Amino acid sequence: MISKVVPNVSEALKGVDDNMTFMFGGFGLSGIPENSIAKLVTLGVTGLTCVSNNAGVDDFGLGLLLQQRQIKKMISSYVGENDEFERQMLSGELEVELIPQGTLAERCRAAQAGFPAFYTPAGYGTEVAEGKETREFNGKMYVLEKAFDADFGFIKAWKGDAAGNLIFKGTARNFNPNMCGAAKITVAEVEELVPVGELDPNQIHIPGIFVQRIFKGAQYEKRIEQRTVRPKE
């Protein structure tokens, strides 16, 4: 079986360049590809179009790329936790495409499955549908949404093996599975990397066919986006 393991994040990100479109798994700060994002910052690539449910926070996640003005366009669903994102959007420095969360997930899944487009009722009659084809099915109006066309997909998983099979843990199993195989090259960083055969086949969430490169990540912070605590009695 072909090994898809690369020794480090530098090898995993070979081929990234300016003006590319990247997908980033994660929900809030849960399950984000921390090592890949940090490396993109040091590489200094610019003009990026980024597909992600969130835009990180000011000093973590995609917020690090925003700080360095490396992102040209964000395609997201929820971006309310990042003041720098808000500032760049309102000043016109950052192009933003806000789309319904389910549509975002489905545009990823369509790319993964090889479907060029699909119809959805979400957004019909709103700004989301402006300039898009609409069609009636069984008396209900739908909007045509196109699958994403990304150069790289950056994924974070809990466990993976040398063949690229992945297991996600808890809420990190969010946008990550839909983004696997949805870009030309899928890069998976994992907390635990094991030999082929050590993962229970019944527990695998994503088969290795959807992954081109895999590496063992390091020094995960796993920050909490909003911490709420009960006052002492």
TrEMBL record:
Entry's Gene3D superfamilies?
Glutaconate Coenzyme A-transferase (3.40.1080.10)
Instruction: Give the Pfam families listed for this entry.
Output: CoA_trans
Q: Tell me one GO molecular function of this protein.
A: transferase activity
Question: Keywords, A to Z?
Answer: Transferase
- Known InterPro entries for this protein? 3-oxoacid_CoA-transf_A, CoA_trans_fam_I, CoA_transf_BS, NagB/RpiA_transferase-like
What family does this chain come from, according to its entry? Belongs to the 3-oxoacid CoA-transferase subunit A family.
This protein is called CoA transferase subunit A
Task: Record the organism.
Answer: Microcosmobacter mediterraneus
